[in-house]
Amino acid sequence: MSNGKMDSRLRGNDGGRENNTSASKNNSNSSLPIKTGAEIVVSTLIEQGVDTMFGYLGGVVLPLFDKLYDAPINFIIPRHEQGGCHMADGYARASGKVGVMVATSGPGACNLVTGIANAMMDSVPLVVLTGQVRTDLIGNDAFQEADTTGITRPITKHNVIVKDVNDLQQTIREAFHIAKTGRPGPVLIDIPVDVEVNKCEAKPLGEITLPGYKPQVKGHHRQITMAAEEINKSERPVLYVGGGVIAANASEELRTLAKKANIPVTMTLLGLGAYDQTQPESLDMLGMHGTAYANYAVQECDLLIAVGSRFEDRVTGKIKAFAPKAKFIHIDIDPSSISKNVIVNIPVVGDAKYILGELANEVKYKERKEWFDKIAGWKSKFPLQYDVKSPNIKPQYVIEQIWEATKNNAIIVTGVGQHQMWTAQFYKHTKPRHFITSGGLGTMGFGLPAAIGAQLAKPDMTVIDIDGDSSFNMTMNELCTAVQYELPIKVCILNNGYMGMVRQWQELFYGKRYSKSSLRNPEFAAVAEAFGAVGITVEKKSDVKNAIAKMLKEKRPCLVDFKVEREENVWPMVAAGKSLNEMDGLNIFERMA
Amino acid sequence: MKHIISALVHNRPGVLAHVAGMFAARAFNIDSLAVGRTDDPELSRMTIVVLGDDKVVEQVRKQLEKIIDVVKVQDYTLKEVIAHDLMLVCVHASAEKRHEILALVEMFKGKVVDIGQKFVMVELADGEEKLEAFINSCKPYGIKNMVRTGTVAMGRLSTPSATEEL
Q1: Do A339 and B63 touch (CB under 8 A)?
Q2: Domain span including residue B28
Q3: Stated pTM of the model
Q4: Residue A207 lies in a domain
Q5: By the CB < 8 Å criterion, does B41 face chain A?
Q6: Minimum CA–CA partner of A336 in chain B
Q7: CA A543 – CA A188 distance, rounded (Å)
Q8: pLDDT, chain A, mean
Q9: Are the C-beta atoms of residues A244 and A220 closer than 8 Å to each other?
Q10: Of B47, B75, B103, at which residue does a domain stop?
Q11: How many CB atoms lie within 10 A of CB B114?
Q12: Among A83, A414, B53, B110, which is disulfide-ready with A449 (CB 3.0 to 4.6 Å)?
């Protein structure tokens, strides 16, 4: 917009070299403390409740890091900014708090891009601070200059460059507010180095009012009543819940609603943990690699109640044939999620916790025997299966053994690929914030750094990264971070020597031409030992249980390299473009049974 | 179908890039985009003409509202609006044809803003159809150059919706 016109924020600081001018200009008659920009960053982070943060140094953030030197913040230095961003992401998902990451300008900021986009797609609250070159150098292709706000604009919920130290404190406060309210997401603040050094008065925390940002928390009551009426009427309802239920801390309300109205529940990948999978109402995961009983139930239901989910293509399959017999209720805090992919009958915009709570008050119990009998039939006819009698280490077997050894008492983190789908399928997710995975962006390499972040959030929990060899290869340098900070994370690599999911698609859709998808891996156990972690290699099925037991006892970071069946596939599968009831892999199970 | 969307935005660097980038990223088609300041120096007004069906325009509106620096979005699609473009046209006007062109300008309530030996420059601010009609009328004489601002719009004061306008 009006390029020649300068924002009021910029006025008075276009030189950038005139240190301290802002302070002397504004503060002559004030008793408020005078602080540098760097001091303001640190004190505002502490004010916002930050006790753990992540970051990597660089030239233009040195003033800030100098003030972090003796700050009461547990500061974690990753080995790469992407890793740091995933750590902040894992920390945020495990704790429910805002994750904070700092990086320098140019390459530091660019290295964050994958991590920020990942948090954006999965609605994870992050505040990302980047250094920037001096304000008077911006736009001149200065050393380590990149247009950070330009690069990250489409992958942040909000971003802003602060060119006047007087705006810094309020901008940081607004960033936390925006990151954690409404549909959460990453907010980036770009801070030129002179702004870190300039001084101004530190103001007390006041109310935050953003005229363009008013997330709706309470759902419209008439919509809620209409939804309740539809639920009470329906014979074959299904609750389809996504990560929004976990973000809203609404698992209890979901449980109350499902139990009270007697409705089966299926979850998206990010929704796993929102509903206890050991409960009879659970249909487990739906979608491309969902269970047959979840997919059939969705296709047969007469009412689909979507909560905190966005009808993504991996969930719906062929959108036109998705839940063809159903009316749709869609509960979401993001109005733009509603009627984006499917037109819904009853939209309810607002916070899932509030709306599910209200809804639970208005619904009645209904037996729905026919519906539950039908579902029970699918469950017994099409359970998740694999060849349990195989003498080889089946990846699903490893995951089942991890479940047996940990039950509800572990945070499970994954990379992206086949291992992720098997973990979603074969580990029984029972609690929210106990399954941490990269859903929307599908970021390989997410597992290890996210596990480090989760361990920092929950120091007393067992945190296990169930990873693939290719995923692990992408960010394995972060093992040093786990060793340095003495974090007892566990890494279980389901090592098949392939980019497994790619290989599966090549097998199914490209005539088994395994083009470029097989890797020569290092000996991961030896790599772990070299990093200072414990490394175990498992080549025999009979050693799996013992290795897991040993791993769980270990106080140091511990990696177990399971040499699994190389060409195992994830079943069932809805091929891209097919509808949910067109699953492949079911007949394989029937033959096996 | 053409839809007119009006967005009140913070007058900050990067907001135009954000809005334009969102349109590109979500594959929405912009027909025209006009930006200018408002009576409040903190705020600018963007008037965006979008091509698409109702579902697309609904998403455009929601995605615009999602941008933190966008304060308010109005969809003028189903409302009575005054929607005008400003256009400058350079028309070939030889001495013997000049009076015909001046008559045309008069008829369309335009304004001659510059005159050269062979050309006249005409300013015309009006609705889409009027501008198109004027362009068509000028074509036989030869149009040398033309520039348009893109549509700006406001709800009609005589309609009930006028009370909710900012």
Answers
A1: no
A2: 2-75
A3: 0.92
A4: no
A5: yes
A6: B62
A7: 47
A8: 94
A9: no
A10: B75
A11: 11
A12: A83
The whole-number pLDDT of residue A585 equals 87
**Per-residue model confidence as pLDDT tens digits over B116-164:** 999 999 999 999 999 999 999 999 999 999 999 999 999 888 766 555 5
Q: Which residues pair with A411 in a beta bridge?
A: A463
Residue B165 lies in a domain: no
Domain of B49, CATH number, reads: 3.30.70.260
Report the residue of chain A nearest B37, measured CA to CA.
A2
B59 touches chain A (CB under 8 A): yes
How far apart, in whole angstroms, are the C-alpha atoms of residue A20 and residue A13?
10
Tell me: do A405 and A372 sit in the same domain. Answer: no
C-alpha to C-alpha distance for A184 and A157, rounded to whole angstroms: 8
Of A150, A154, A178, nearest to B68 by CB-CB distance is A178
pLDDT at A13: 38
Residues B89 and B42 occupy one common structural domain: no
Residue B72 CA, chain-centre distance (Å), reads 19
Question: CB-CB: which of B14, B25, B37 is closest to A2?
Answer: B37
Q: Show residues of chain B in contact with A213, CB under 8 Å.
A: 68
B71 touches chain A (CB under 8 A): yes
Instruction: Report if residue A114 sits inside a domain.
Output: yes
Ordered DSSP codes for A25-88: HH-TT--SPEEEHHHHHHHHHHHTT--EEEE---GGGHHHHHHHTT-SSEEE--SSHHHHHHHH
Distance from CA of A316 to the nearest CA of B (A): 19
Closest-CA residue in chain A for B47?
A: A1
CB within 8 Å: A335 and B62: yes
| C-alpha distance from A83 to closest chain B C-alpha (Å) | 26
Taking the CA of residue A463 and the nearest CA in chain B, the distance in Å comes to 35
pLDDT of A182 > 90? The answer is yes
Range of the domain at A90: 21-201
Note whether residue A216 is domain-resident: no
